[in-house]
Amino acid sequence: MINTIRLLFDTKLVRYSKDLLTRNVPYVCKRNLKTFNILGIETSCDDTGCAIINNKGVLLGERLHSQNLMHLRNGGIIPDVAQDLHRKYIEPTIDETLKDAKLTFKDIAAIAVTLEPGLPLSLAIGMKYAKHLARTHNIPIIPIHHMEAHALVVRMQHQISFPYLTLLISGGHCLLAVVKDVNKFLLLGESIDNAPGEIFDKVARRLKLRNVPEYSQMCGGQAIEIAASKATNPHMFQLPLPLTEFRDCNFSFSGIKSSALYQLFRKEREHNITADKLIPEVNDLCAALLMTVCRHLVHRTQRAFEFCQQNDLIPEDNKQLIVSGGVACNNYIFNIMTMLCNEFDYKIYRPSPKLCTDNGAMIAWNGLEKWNRDIDIVNDLSSLDIKAVSPLGESLISDVAKAKIPTKLMKLRLKA
Ligand code: KG4
Ligand code: ZN
């Protein structure tokens, strides 16, 4: 044993860690290796994701077990059901990822795993399994913040330097933040109630879009995007634009949702709609919903541009907006955001759709970025725990409100 340790130490592979002293097990540190791989595990909500990337950021294998169909059938995510499915699929998902990459745990330098924020029952499965693997194979864990991973994964595909502005839009969150570095975020605004993906999913369910064969396997946001593109009278329904009197960068979506549902009830009564039937104006209502959400996102982002300029948060020669999270898959929203960016001389990027929605690669990538900077490489596994709620970075939300920027909002000629 001593010889083994000496041998490894001589080849600079061993770091004498707390683990070595307390558990009498050598912590094999692969930090000095020229080539290494990071395994990422994502279980924060309803997707069991795993991916392996090498030290150059090349994706060697990835697997995703989506629970979408089960939750569509149940009319939403039931946390116990999500947990059972994570428990069932986590091991095969990881094994298949290793097989795809033609690797074993001997080739893995660290396990990156989402620990915050998310559904506690779902997060717990990822954490427990990651700890089990870390103990068994004697490798460290890199804890990952789910929203930080969404904000950073674009760097896996594009050369984007810090600092940049990010708009993260998903089923659980909506926020605007300046990404200063891998572990430095300035939060400019966030949703005070629902997230955009959440209201898309709820309204799609209530519209019964699932009963249309074309949409039957799609998440709500995607179904609404396609239905909206078929609208014949996109201005038939007017939904209220939220928070117009507040000169900040926060978001609110619950009023849009309530108003869309109210208009739906009205039309259902008017047409005497029963059971599984959809209202005839379903495409127009989807268009109104998408346009209003989009308008709100554009207005708050415009104010964020102005706040960043006033406070020198983004250099003139590095004006970049990164849109990420599941809702960033929406081409209509991305195209309108592109128009806004053109007006303000910002470049705009988003990760490819598979990397916008929850996935293991963004966790592995965040693990690699932390590994390269020696951030959060944890050997004392007992110090790791999950957090359901976890704000992103340092909050500048009250500074934005105090600035009271009287944004002259860009005129949008929207048509879904
Ligand atoms: O990031 P994500 O996979 O999970 C969370 O962290 O929440 O985002 C999932 C959300 C769902 O609410 C889904 O309806 C939405 O992303 N989404 C979309 C589209 N594709 C997925 N929303 C609008 N348009 C899309 N094309
Ligand atoms: Zn997400």
Global geometry: globular
Let me know the number of strands.
11
Protein structure class: alpha/beta
Count up the helices: 14
Structure description:
This protein is of the alpha/beta class. It has 14 helices and eleven strands. The chain has helices at residues 2-10, 18-23, 68-74, 79-101, 120-137, 146-152, 196-207, 220-229, 254-270, 282-310, 331-343, 353-356, 360-372, 397-403; strands at 37-42, 47-54, 59-66, 108-116, 141-145, 164-169, 174-181, 184-190, 320-324, 347-349, 394-395. A six-stranded mixed beta sheet has the order 10-9-6-7-8-11, with helices on both faces. A five-stranded mixed beta sheet has the order 3-2-1-4-5, sandwiched between helices. The radius of gyration is 23 Å and the shape is globular. The N and C termini lie far apart (67 Å). The model is unreliable at 1-27 (pLDDT under 50). The structure holds 5'-O-[(R)-(carboxyoxy)(hydroxy)phosphoryl]adenosine and zinc ion. 5'-O-[(R)-(carboxyoxy)(hydroxy)phosphoryl]adenosine is lined by residues 45, 170-172, 197, 200-201, 219-222, 225, 325-327, 329-330, 357-358. 5'-O-[(R)-(carboxyoxy)(hydroxy)phosphoryl]adenosine (KG4) binds at residues 45, 170-172, 197, 200-201, 219-222, 225, 325-327, 329-330, 357-358.
